[in-house]
Automatic annotation (TrEMBL):
This is MOSC domain-containing protein. Pfam families: MOSC. InterPro entries: MoCF_Sase_C (IPR005302), MOSC_domain (IPR052716), Pyrv_Knase-like_insert_dom_sf (IPR011037). SUPFAM superfamilies: PK beta-barrel domain-like (SSF50800). Residues 17-145 form the MOSC domain. It comes from Shewanella atlantica. GO terms for molecular function: catalytic activity; molybdenum ion binding; pyridoxal phosphate binding.
Length: 146
């Protein structure tokens, strides 16, 4: 079963991630209180726990998923190029997958080898546009729609 297992946001640029059990996600602000939540193709980022576990195995360590600095962590699906343009429904929230979240130099600064471990097969997650306002919570079901 695909489900949402964690929610995080960055209240200030380059600040620490704040974890919450529920969040309001809107078309104007993304994950409420997230510094980067303005409208656009990269409004919300979603990462697969299945793919994060591959990254951890490659690194031979288990840094917290928030090291990646994504907003949402799901389980039960691994992202790929075939997902671009599809809709991701999390509870009552609908997101449009707009592309891959490319790993950047910040990942290497956070953990040696992380940038390279995130690079293959969309392991860094996906960028999304918010299509409707909704409250989401850990444990919400996740569906990938064509």
């Amino acid at each position: 079963m695909k489900k949402l297992i964690a929610i995080g946001f960055k209240p200030v640029k380059q600040g620490p991630m704040t974890l919450v059990e529920s969040a309001n996600v809107t078309q104007t602000h993304g994950v409420e209180q997230d510094f980067f939540g303005r409208p656009g193709k990269r409004q919300v980022t979603v990462m697969s726990n299945d793919q994060w576990q591959l990254v951890c195995a490659e690194l031979e360590s288990s840094p917290p998923w928030t090291t990646r600095r994504a907003n949402l962590l799901i389980e039960g699906h691994s992202f790929s190029a075939a997902d671009q343009g599809k809709l991701l429904r999390i509870g009552k929230l609908t997101l449009e997958i707009t592309g891959e979240t490319d790993p950047c130099k910040k990942m290497e600064a956070a953990r040696s080898g992380l940038e390279a471990a995130l690079a293959p097969n969309w392991r860094g997650g996906v960028t999304c546009r918010v299509l409707n306002d909704a409250m989401i919570s850990e444990g919400d079901s996740v569906q990938l729609l064509s």
